[in-house]
Design brief:
InterPro entries: Aminotransferase_I/II_large, Kynurenine-oxoglutarate_AT, NHTrfase_class1_PyrdxlP-BS, PyrdxlP-dep_Trfase, PyrdxlP-dep_Trfase_major, PyrdxlP-dep_Trfase_small. By secondary structure, this protein is α/β, with parallel strands linked by helices. Helices cover 42% and strands 13% of the residues. It binds pyridoxal-5'-phosphate (PLP).
């Protein structure tokens, strides 16, 4: 099976043109085959496998249930009210104000909606614009692995170099010495994803403090991807930007996609100090220009939902998480209980002998055939140097209806 995370930095071959920018980008995201052609992602491959085998697809991270009715109604009303033309590049005022109010109410953070918040086409554009606004060729970016593929893609596209720091299983915590060693005079940025996809872990206070300290020492910017901020099971989310001395050098990215079960809406945002947000705005002007106008109105309303909405959503996700973790337990696995996100990871090595395979990628194929369940090997989220660390780990998404999860776990228990 091909992996999603990929090869060596795309190097120039003597006598040949250097790789095109798109090839650098594809390479950084793990989408380039050895002949330099674009290949499918591991997510597409596993989705196709799920379809072929009639399996439950716990590979891809999107909900199989509807967004909140009130938010959908608000979108319909916004369409009816005639919001069809370009929105402002930075986002409609109502949404920027709603984001500022949300950050204050949830985290005590003060942000000026005029200048400290930019609405983007999903967190994807937010992270992309943040990194492109900062990186010069030759810069280094500290990235924790396993990681969401976007970060490596943008870093390489910008001509910068990703410096990977492994999150060490089974706790998926980095060695602080590795974190320190990853910073150099060339470090321009560090990306933290908290809560973390794919491992379902949450960054410790100590790690966040260390990043603030190292970023200050090296005059680097911290980009925090907090799209799972409302999926925290064991305590409130603490944005890195709220730590002492962090706000001045941190760009925080989030999105409506996960919180409101609407990954297709493509409404996200970036917040931070004015000088850094200005850079994000400059870049996103020439990416999407602006996110979908009517949907911005609806997300502004959704962000103002009462506390009970967020608590109820979390309670539903906790139930889904517990169904998955209990089901994996019945299948003889001992996954760490996810502290955040809608992903669980499990060391599946005890099942190799029975299945006649020797890694999680092989077991994923086997389970699709025998158990009707598809997951994603965690090695697909790592660069080649670190793939071996995660060879025994499989990621399973629990953003699915509980009956779907129960059926999947029953299939797994029967098969093993
Ligand atoms: C860690 C992380 N960041 C960003 C994104 C993309 O978010 P959006 O759909 O808002 O672009 C995802 C989606 O899976 C994600 O898991």
């Amino acid at each position: 099976m091909t992996s999603n995370a990929q090869p060596q930095p795309s190097a120039a071959v003597p006598g040949q043109r250097p790789p095109a920018p798109w090839q650098r980008m594809a390479n950084g995201g793990g989408l380039l085959d050895p002949a330099g052609r674009l290949r499918s992602t591991v997510f597409e491959e596993m989705t196709a496998l799920a379809r072929r085998t009639g399996s439950v697809n716990l590979g891809q991270g999107f909900p199989d249930f509807a967004p909140p009715r009130e938010m959908v109604d608000a979108a319909a009303a916004a369409l009816g009210a005639g919001h069809h033309q370009y929105a402002p590049i930075v986002g409609i005022p109502a949404l920027r104000e709603a984001i500022a109010t949300h950050q204050r109410a949830c985290y005590g953070q003060e942000l000026d909606p005029d200048g400290q918040i930019a609405v983007c086409a999903g967190a994807t554009e937010g992270v992309t614009a943040a990194l492109l606004s900062l990186l010069r060729p030759g810069d280094e970016v500290v990235l924790f692995e396993p990681r969401y593929d976007l970060y490596g893609a943008v870093v390489e596209f910008a001509g910068a170099t990703a410096v990977p720091v492994p999150l060490l299983p089974p706790a998926f915590v980095p060695d602080p010495d590795d974190v320190r060693a990853a910073f150099s005079p060339r470090t321009r940025a560090v990306v933290l994803n908290d809560p973390h996809n794919p491992t379902g872990t949450v960054a410790s206070r100590e790690l966040k403090e260390l990043l603030v300290e190292l970023a200050a020492e090296h005059d680097a910017v911290i980009v925090t991807d907090e799209v799972y901020e409302h999926l925290r099971y064991d305590g409130p989310h603490e944005p890195l930007a709220t730590l002492p001395d962090a706000a001045e050098r941190t760009l925080t990215v989030s999105s409506a996609g996960k919180t409101f079960s609407a990954t297709g809406w493509r409404v996200g945002w970036v917040s931070g100090p004015r000088d850094l947000v200005q850079g994000v705005v400059a870049v996103k002007t020439y990416l999407s220009h602006s996110a979908a106008a009517p949907l911005q109105h609806a997300v502004a309303e959704a962000l103002a939902f009462p506390r009970e909405f967020f608590d109820g959503m979390l309670a539903d996700y906790r139930e889904r998480r517990d169904v998955l973790v209990a089901g994996l337990g019945e299948a003889g696995l001992t996954p760490p209980t996810p502290q955040g996100t809608f992903f669980a990871v499990a060391d599946v090595s005890d099942h190799y002998a029975l299945a006649g395979v020797d890694d999680a990628a092989g077991l994923a194929q086997h389970w699709a055939q025998t158990a009707g369940v598809v997951g994603i090997p965690v090695s697909a989220f790592a660069s080649p140097a670190n793939q071996g660390l995660y060879a025994d780990w499989l990621r399973l998404a629990f953003c699915k209806r509980t009956e779907v999860l129960r059926a999947a776990m029953a299939g797994l228990a029967a098969a093993v």
